[in-house]
Write a structure and sequence with these properties.
homodimer, 709 residues, alpha+beta, BirA Bifunctional Protein, domain 2, Herpes Virus-1, Signal recognition particle alu RNA binding heterodimer, srp9/1, 9-stranded mixed beta sheet, 5-stranded mixed beta sheet, cytoplasm (chains A, B), aa-tRNA-synth_II (chains A, B)
Chain lengths: 709, 709
């Protein structure tokens, strides 16, 4: 929605030092249109000028209406008026989701022996405090003091300025198209844009503010509202200064209300907390990955963009744990090194370019574009996954985070972005998060979230060791004994050396021990020995680094629907009919069974073919309604059903059937066995329609409806 | 945990008039041990005397420790101290869950063309207010005024009385076993039971209270606490009177905090609200079913019983919509009519019996034991599903709800109960909920949650119709016009007849119209005509009835683990080793690949077999650790892996492999192709091990470890 160049023009002013918690970023929420070249600014339009699979102009409202009519999705609780940002998947959407998740499991979890876990969404506050979400996972919102309207501060500023710019254009006689993507907003009686001409300098100021709208903090947004006298059109009143709003849903756990809890905003934390057990399950072998597929929750201030920014959504996250030493190699990198990706790296973004060529991931890792093999391996695997489910390869790119867009601890981060009518949408994040997460939880809880590895060759360490004479030490310090002992144990090596010197020269040492006496404690040489000694280490202990591919399944599904959608002109001059060209592997249903009519003689064959397909593991649906064959096929083209079997009077006589291809509408005819074999090979991806067309006789047009005998 | 007879002894006092919301019932939470014959009372023990699959005494702590060690499940957030009632599934538990859900989809959703939807867990309060959950989905809790402890009132009464009875037994010199099922409770320093002898009459009073503990309301529990001077052992203070605690997690939606919301306590409501759209999706054809698989949430006051009573859990619910007229027939009932079920009906329960014989569902429906075919169909299908996933058929029964246990609108209700060491556990509820849910939502929202069916033969209806002279009516009543008109339209048929008489005799009628004048309105005959006329109806409108099979997936999984568990004595005199005899179809992993040793020559074969199995769609895992073959197999017996392939030096030479059966530990040996075919037939359920043993040569003992050449 905001096709502005953030980085080329504003790189110096970026505030995102903690992007994991910036509600804007995906691992927080969306960052719609993170990057567009400067030229794009002037073509700003809420519906991006994209084209369908067949190169037709893309019409979002038409697709959207079709998706709702076919119940791919529907606003939740619509009979109660609905709730913004909550959607239900209807039968085809739900089946599509199940198939994508199933493929995710096969492609990632089973293929790589990942350890899948199912962690709870309910999360105690303490965990999310440690992870940083309680403090940082927030957006800026401002409130209208008159009617209590709550608006996301950046959205508010953006809308006011856009509206003024539009008024300016109208005053200058430039034609402006109406936004059509948010029917709800239209219903609100927002004051119509006034056609007021602005100074050229003001226009430029506004455009510059819009260009860096993502980068203002609350105070700055408040200053902009004041400076440009922005008022809520609904009340004519200036909103109150922006305040931070944490995007997590909070809900106390248990009856006392004392245990603060949240719904998780991501599945990652549950995986990190199970690290030690998972390592144990994996028999202490490194590297390994865990995975979790489940719902996450973000209490968006004002959800827009349909299925792309919702309050409850399905995520699939992988946490791959790798030894930080040795360059983060991956033992299967060789298998993917020739996979070619569109990589939009930092330098290209800084140079204001977007046109990038595909490059083999092997080369990108070798030349340092991608930080390491493991990260590169996952980028390639993500690419292959998206390709497999039917994402348009020309609308996929991997965009590298800018240095100041990443968390300080992150080594590298790439987003798989998919191009849609909303712009480039981040659908998968793939970050090298270093040892951050395990470290903070270990520090907070004292749990050993580390790997202990037996060294092939023991190493000898020379160090200053301290021995206390416990028998005398306790009685000497009495109740402070443990505190003093702990302070002694905690003395760092460099200090020990100096103290050893003191002990030798003065016969005693003085150390700082908080809470004991005046904070200084003397220990005489009869109680303590400090010596340099050699120690042999057989194990090495380290906190693994985490490579985290994080998938927004709902976003991927929405993009998939845009990418596979096209229309075909009707023969009869009706409206263009919609088609969703899902690959068979993810299509909600694989085969439509249509009898030529409701004639009784077709019923046994329908049932027979249904059972046959089920026994092959191929999902099918019957449409024996009285609508014409054409209408029934049209309906299933909209549902994305790739294949159709027609049962006609000839089928009753000779047990042959026609098989129809959704995309070409071509038909072939053959006996049952041949048709079933063809279907199985198509559904399993062994063959494509062109193969079938070559092998089997083409069938032209269904016979007329003549009953048998 | 409370093996008491609720119905035989207390049927007259039952309070449950609205059991859907009674937190005790499953559709609310658990009803552990709903029914046991009176005799059982005296054998009360928290761990029921059950046996394993092989008839061995069942030892819950041993199984539990194995399940945690193998990470079937683990307490969530354990490194932060854990949260009661929240558990994560580790890799084998998660895979088991995925397989059970997958089978649920195949067995129910695909088999019956159900319309699966994925609705949000976040739910606006208004929806749950209408459904009754806001007012009724509660438990009684009481608070200790001294330390703030919150206890479930019935649990508190129960524990105090049990403790006193135990003290009495000790005083009488009867040996009492310690409860072992709740390690947490042990840690709390509850005052040890005092050995105080009670009067025989008091003992009887206590036992009678315990027998009907499920049936007291808050006030009655409060009276019991007062009467018997029950004090919290932790403080010695009597708790405050019980107050109702709603078990739903609440969380406001959106930034203003004005939209009250809850996490759904069941998935049903989302399905009901989509009824009209689903009917449309189904092309207006009845009957049909929707289904939803997803997490639900219940804020239990004090969760006990491990995985059986948790705060976040996976449900799978089916809402089958059926025409209430015509006896609720099911067109596939014929297919299941001979399935035999253990049916514990109302009468048997009232007679205090539990020993019931299997009866064919066809007979049970015919003789009226089960209310109708559709309900009977689903009971049989539930039975077949549980059988398929490996539930012990001798530990499964269907228990009918007592008349006063059901909601007033329910026609019939049966629970599939599974026997475990916690007693009989309700795992699937199957209720005929009549038209209740659709009716209340339609009434609240005005949405037409009805079916309109074209009548085969139009019917003629004779009725009293009213015509208003709109031209005069409006001006006459002015601002009250619409209100009066609505009141007239709403007049029922019997009233219309009388009014027609009045109009004829007096030239005017007087009707009640709330809010207009003094509430009485006169309408003269120049404004109104009331006549008996004939009307032809072409369509029939009705609210469908709902048959609702509701599955607690987590409970089923726990019971499955108890049912498939057994131990086998070790040869070497070690401890007995655990086995989970999951059927291959649900087993977390199907095949274990073990090389005889870590010798390099095995590696290519391991990889080859892994890939082969994957291409067959069979999940496998490799264990190439240095542990002995026996240890590695033991580990996988505990994980429930049904098959094992050993790769030894002979394999390297002649490409033959041994295949091991988990349950018998027998092995056969054959070439790759034969072994793979055998595995596929076992995993797909076409063959059982006995078949394979007959077909392939037995293999005795692995060779010693001699490298090739």
């Amino acid at each position: 929605m905001r096709p502005f160049c953030r980085f080329a023009r504003t790189a110096g002013h970026l505030q995102n030092t903690f992007p994991r918690y910036k509600a804007r970023s995906f691992t927080a929420t969306t960052q719609v249109n993170k990057y567009q070249p400067p030229k794009f600014q002037k073509q700003k339009d809420p519906i991006m000028a994209t084209t369908t699979l067949k190169g037709q102009p893309f019409d979002r409202p038409v697709l959207d209406s079709m998706l709702r009519r076919r119940m791919f999705y529907t606003p939740s609780f619509e009979v109660y008026g609905g709730v913004a940002g909550l959607y239900d998947y209807g039968p085809p959407g739900c089946a599509l989701q199940t198939n994508v998740v199933d493929l995710f499991r096969k492609h990632f979890v089973l293929e790589e022996d990942m350890l899948e876990v199912d962690c709870t969404a309910l999360t105690p506050a303490e965990v999310l405090k440690t992870s940083g979400h309680v403090d940082k996972f927030a957006d800026w919102m401002c409130k209208d003091p008159k009617n209590g309207d709550i608006m996301r501060a950046d959205h508010f500023v953006e809308e006011i300025l856009e509206s003024r710019l539009k008024g300016d254009k109208e005053a200058r006689g430039v034609k402006v198209e109406e936004k059509e993507d948010d029917p709800k907003k239209k219903k609100k009686k927002v004051k119509a844009t006034e056609a007021v001409k602005l100074d050229d300098a003001v226009v430029q100021e506004y455009e510059e503010i819009l260009a860096r709208i993502d980068n203002y903090n609350g105070e700055e947004l408040g200053q902009l509202i004041k400076k440009y006298e922005m008022k809520n059109p609904a009340t004519g009143v200036e909103p109150l200064p922006p305040v931070e709003f944490n995007l997590m849903f909070n809900t106390p756990i248990g009856p006392s209300g004392n245990l603060a809890g949240y719904l998780r905003p991501e599945t990652a934390q549950g995986q990190f907390l199970n690290f030690a057990k998972l390592l144990d399950f994996n028999q202490q072998q490194m590297p390994f990955a865990s995975a979790c597929i489940g719902k996450s929750y973000r209490n968006e201030i004002s959800p827009r963009s349909g299925l792309l920014r919702v309050r409850e959504f399905l995520m699939a996250e992988i946490e791959h744990y790798v030894d930080p030493h040795g360059g983060k190699k991956h033992h299967r990198f060789e298998e993917v090194k020739d996979v070619e990706l569109v990589l939009l790296n930092r330098h290209t973004q800084l140079a204001g370019q977007t046109h990038v060529k595909k490059v083999a991931i092997g080369k990108a890792v070798a030349d340092g574009t991608v930080d390491n093999e493991t990260l590169g391996y996952f980028l390639a695997r993500i690419h292959l996954f998206l390709e497999k489910i039917g994402i348009d390869q020309t609308k996929l790119r991997f965009r590298q985070h800018m240095a100041n867009e990443m968390a300080h601890y992150a080594a590298d981060c790439w987003d798989a972005e998919l191009q849609t009518s909303y712009g480039w949408i981040e659908c998968v994040g793939c970050a090298d998060r270093s040892a951050y997460d395990l470290t903070v939880h270990a520090k907070k809880t004292g749990a050993p979230l580390v790997v202990r590895e037996r060294l092939a060759e023991p190493i000898t360490v020379e160090e200053w060791q301290i021995d206390l004479d416990k028998k005398k030490f306790g009685p000497h310090f009495k109740k402070d004994g443990k505190t003093v002992e702990a302070a002694v144990e905690a003395l760092p090596q460099e200090k020990r050396e100096a103290l050893a010197q003191d002990l030798k020269l003065e016969g005693k040492i003085t150390i700082d021990v908080e809470g004991v006496g005046n904070g200084k404690v003397e220990i005489s040489k009869d109680l303590i020995v400090i010596e340099r000694r050699k120690r042999v280490e057989n194990t090495r202990e380290f906190t693994p680094n985490v490579i985290e591919p994080s998938f927004g399944i709902g976003r991927i599904i929405y993009c998939l629907m845009e990418h596979t959608y096209w229309t075909r002109g009707s023969d009869g001059g009706d409206e263009a009919r919609g088609v969703l060209s899902f690959p068979p592997i993810v299509a909600p249903s694989k085969v439509l069974l249509v009898p030529l009519s409701t004639h009784e003689s077709f019923k046994p064959l329908l049932r027979h073919m249904s059972l046959k397909l089920r026994s092959l593991g191929v999902s099918s649906r019957v449409d024996d309604s009285s609508a014409s064959i054409g209408k029934r096929y049209s309906r299933n083209d909209e549902l994305g059903t790739p294949l159709g079997i027609t049962i006609d009077f000839q089928s009753v006589q000779d047990k042959t059937y026609t098989l129809r291809d959704r995309d070409s509408t071509k038909q072939v005819r053959a006996d049952e066995e041949t048709i079933l074999t063809a279907i199985k090979s198509l559904v399993e991806g062994e063959k494509v329609w062109a193969d079938i067309e070559k092998e089997l006789p083409t069938f032209e047009g269904q016979e007329v409806e003549v009953p048998v005998r």
